[in-house]
Task: structure prediction
Amino acid sequence: MAGLKGSPATATAPSAGSTVMTNVEAVRATLHDALARDERVLIMGEDVGARGNVFLITKGFLEEFGPERVIDTPLAEASIVGVAIGMAMEGLRPIAEIQFADFIYPAFNQIVGEAAKTRYRSNGDYTCPLVIRTPYGGGVRGALSHSVSIEALFYHVPGLTILAPSTPADVKGLLNAAIECPDPVLFLEHKKTYRSVKGEVPDGYYTIPIGKADVKKAGSQVTVVSYGFNAHQALDAANRLEADGVSIEVIDLRSIRPMDKTTILDSVRKTRKLLIIHEDNKFGGIGAEISAMVAEEALFDLDAPIRRLCGPDVPAMGYALPLEEEFMISTEQMLTAMRELAAF
Amino acid sequence: MTTITMPQLGETVTEGTVAQWLKNVGDSVEKYESFVEVSTDKVNAEVPAPVTGIIRELMVKEGETVPTGTPIAIIDEVAAGGIPAPEGSASPSEAVAASARPTAAEAYHQGSDEPVPGGNLGLSGDSYTAAPVTANSNGTVAPSSSTAGGVRVSPAVRRLAREHQVDLGTIRGSGDHGRVTANDILAAAKAGPSAGVAATISAEGAQYTASKPAATARPSYENARPGSLIPLTQARKIIAQRMVESKRTAPHAWTMVEVDVTNVWKWRSNEKAAFEQATGVKLTLLPFFIRAAVEALAAFPLMNASFTDEGIRVHREVNIGLAIAASGNLIVPVIRNADRLSISGLALAAGALIEKARRGKLGADDLAGGTFTVNNTGANGSILSAPILVPGQTGIVTTEAVVKRAVVRDDDAIAIRSMMNVCLSLDHRVVDGSVASGFLSDLKKRLEAMGPSGTL
Result:
């Protein structure tokens, strides 16, 4: 896709020790390696076994690792997460899948009320090394119940880590880090990037530190903070503007929570202008927290009002294609916002 | 439409005088913007507007005194942003204030924190709280309106302009609608800040001279030209009245001691740099002196008393007034319960009051309740002075200039010592010479006993 132009993830000639793959392939490869590497790791969820997951991420895993480690569950998200919490507390490393983020609501109590509080409630006697993977986001004609962004709903909760990597290399490094993490991690995979994003992934085991954003492109006039599919569009827009002499710095959060304040503040103090882009709706979203943080910490470095470009505050993605197109943030909108902020 | 009444400035105050209208009829005023200066016998205060709007009526003349609660002005409320920019530059009264202060341009030039009417583009120290300002054609400021195309100042620009002492009025903005950007400030600072600032000031000066000759000609306390008659300001009237009252009612007696401050001076020099770094306040001899004074007052409580018709009221609290000259006036802000503060506590308290006085931000509470006064006359080089008592107090001491002198010591050796005279005026109705000199000797002993081994 166009949005990948210039992205480190789009390099086509793989160097020694790396393989080019899509995001979905990166998820699959990382899960496979984890199952092969660590006997405590198991995967559970709807259609992850016999069907091999709706995106074919776990195809063949049941045959390779057996029904005790690749578990097909009933359509009961609270149970998927609840059972996984118990396994995690007793020493296993479950990776629970919520088939689509839109279905996570029944598990809300288990995630927020149980998993996030395990360490605190037991005074550190128990931890909950649980990974909950779920595909999220729109732009794939998933309509009302296969398009939602859920990060803001969980963002408020102390005790939860929320990751949303956008490139295959980051997917692998952060998924490994999530599996290693002794506390619960919500691992968000943007559906639109599954097959549209391709990039070089280093071979062998590695992790990327949780809580560390990545400056995907350096620039001097405006800081753009984004994540997921939007990060690719933002990068594309920034690269296009470079030709017009407009210099945009693009930060891919990767870790939504914990927030990498240092990287954001360093950049904003340099460019003095901040644009936050996310597909999730604006009100009470991730951008609100970033805005507040920057206003608290760097007000006197700001040379323009903080700007947010976000999804609309409507209850859900519409069914009709024009509604989806209206819902999703276009690269053109990003170009305009970046140009305006640079000129401000 | 909002009617504004004479505010009550202090618990016991029942009336106030409109010292100066800062706005005229027809002027726009922002909420929290000062629009009138009110004086009472305790305090001068600028009164902020409770609403944003346009001044419709001023109901009290300058110099007129009315009871608190009396309506003094009417403001027509306007939604924020709906206010047309005020015509011309400042109101005539502001212009008077501006032109009456040739020092304003100097202060601006030196990057002083003193607010400069008509030139204060966010360069003053407390500008963070100020509303966005709009520079109009002649370089003066007006409250920002929300109209498109109005020049707005971002926090970064405001901060950078202050740091680099760049006058925003001289910058051609490169942003949207000519907005001055942070990079514009940095570029201007690089290009040579002094030239830009100097140019602005002379331009402003010319503006005032050209457009307001009458105002410039008006004599004032700070601009005392030979042959001129300076009208009495409210503050000057009050000072005069209280000085006469004190001299007439309290029979002043006077005495003095010489104090060897060599050791305490050394102590202060040792601590000075670290103290200033830690607190941001300069460590002078004053807090050491106040500490010695409050200890001596504890030993001689009659010095901390008032003569009244009922009897001599010996005060429970030790509230030390500091005589300060500020903007041509004499004011005496008070460190309350000074006997409870350490030397460093006194330094901070005094520093805070002096800073407030310098900014003209002292309130009624800062000025009330003094029971004894310290006057640092030595700051201007004096070695001897006979101060006038603050009415109602029994003593006022001065700290004179510290001078090195050859001193014959107890063992007949001659030594070079740092000496300071301390003068005391006393109300002879309350105490006699024996108490006064006992107090002064006690103060001297305490000050001479202070040295580098002490605790701040």
